[in-house]
Write a structure and sequence with these properties.
Elements lengths: L1 H24 L2 H4 L23 E2 L1 H12 L3 E11 L3 E11 L3 E8 L6 E4 L5 E4 L9 E3 L19 H13 L3 E4 L3 E2 L6 E8 L5 E7 L6 E8 L2 E13 L20
Antiparallel strand pairs: 1-8, 2-3, 2-13, 3-4, 4-5, 5-6, 6-7, 8-10, 9-10, 10-11, 11-12, 12-13
Helix pairs in contact: 3-4
């Protein structure tokens, strides 16, 4: 009887921890059913190059894929702002190591302190921030609980997966175009602006790409032509020599070099 009671209490505690984690990681539209709070999306809007200044973007997508594949490992800071039912901003650091080890630390926003790690097994171990950070849960990589602030799967948020996603959109019938180097508000230096448009010419994605590294610096998502999220990356560190221990959810010290 006592053993059964202990198991029941343990299960209840684990469920509560998972529930807290779910609240933190669900897509922003699931976090709030309130009406939009008069969000001024123009503050985050991307530059819109003229069609006459755009060329076919497929070659640039291939360069982005090759660039991402050239690194054995890397770290990069990110910030994402979702603009749907309410404005939600979060930031953190992504760690990546070949073949497919991923660690995402959330350092700012409503789920500050949350951690998700995909290890060699392909499974994801995660915990929420705050007082419940002691509770770790196992999740499928495609779990809807593992979503970034803009609703994108955590396991597809590395540079290679993002570039391959652009290619997949084109394979399904969308069009890719890229601008000449141009100034983009909030970013240092000249950037290529890559656009993905539907067949009806409606904008779907815009990406500011560094013309030297061919890595994304900013990303805009649209639904029905309306801006719904904005993401940026900074402080990219290539091939720092991340130890495999970094991709252990029990490691709370962040990046280590091997």
């Amino acid at each position: 009887m006592q053993r059964h009671l202990n198991l029941t209490i343990s299960s209840l505690v684990a469920t509560m921890a998972l529930g807290s984690f779910v609240i933190g990681l669900a897509a922003p539209e699931a976090q709030s059913k309130s009406k939009a709070n008069n969000i001024d999306a123009s503050l985050y809007e991307a530059p819109a190059p003229k069609d006459t200044e755009m060329a076919d973007g497929n070659a640039e997508i291939e360069r982005m894929i090759s660039a991402a594949n050239s690194f054995e490992d890397y770290t990069v800071d990110f910030e994402m702002t979702a603009l749907k039912s309410k404005k939600v901003t979060e930031g953190g650091t992504l760690f990546f190591k070949k073949p497919r080890l991923i660690r995402v630390e959330t350092k700012s926003g409503e789920r500050k302190g949350a951690l998700a790690v995909m290890g060699e097994s392909g499974k994801v171990k995660a915990h929420p921030g705050g007082r419940l950070s002691m509770f770790t849960v196992d999740l499928s990589p495609r779990s809807h609980f593992l979503r970034t602030a803009n609703g994108y799967p955590m396991v597809d948020s590395d540079m290679g997966s993002l570039a391959r996603a652009l290619k997949s959109f084109v394979s399904k019938g969308d069009m890719a175009k890229v601008s000449r180097p141009m100034q983009v508000r909030g970013l240092a230096g000249q950037m290529l602006v890559l656009e993905i448009r539907h067949k009806n010419n409606e904008i779907f994605k815009r990406v500011a790409v560094d013309p030297g590294t061919h890595l994304p610096q900013a990303w805009w998502d649209y639904e029905s032509g309306k801006l719904v999220s904005y993401s940026t990356w900074s402080d990219f560190k290539a091939n720092p020599g991340l130890a495999k221990e970094v991709f252990d959810v029990k490691n709370n010290k962040g990046a280590k070099q091997s």
